[in-house]
């Protein structure tokens, strides 16, 4: 799980002069992230085969709610619209 985040963090240290390293790090990050996504998609089927659709939908809904809440939290933490 830490592989994609390490690759994305390392990508922040690249610039236009080493653009091939940025592309390589992005590719490695996406490659390592595919294992995480594959596990997340198959896990509800292994836990409850009969209710896997309901379980996946509810967990996906909860994760989507955090995506909607993040901009509001950033807005609350930056009252002057700047860091």
Low-pLDDT sequence parts? none
H-E order: HHH
How many DSSP helices? 3
The coarse silhouette is: flat
Q: How many β-strands, per DSSP?
A: 0
**What's the mean pLDDT score?**
88
In which range does the helix fraction lie?
Answer: over 70%
Q: What's the gyration radius in Å?
A: 18 Å
* Range of strand content: under 5%
Write the layout of secondary structure elements.
Blueprint: H1 2-11, H2 19-47, H3 52-77
Helix pairs in contact: 1-2, 2-3
Structure description:
By secondary structure, this protein is an all-alpha fold. The chain has 2 domains: 1-47; 51-83. The chain is built from 3 helices and no strands. It has helices spanning 2-11, 19-47, 52-77. The longest helix is centred in the middle third of the chain and has 29 residues, at 19-47. The protein is flat and about 55 Å long. The two termini are 29 Å apart.
Jot down its keywords:
single chain, 83 residues, mainly alpha, 2 domains, 0% strand, flat, Major facilitator superfamily (MFS) profile domain-containing protein, MFS_Na/Anion_cotransporter
Short description:
It is found in: Membrane. Keywords: Membrane, Transmembrane, Transmembrane helix. By secondary structure, the chain is mostly helical.
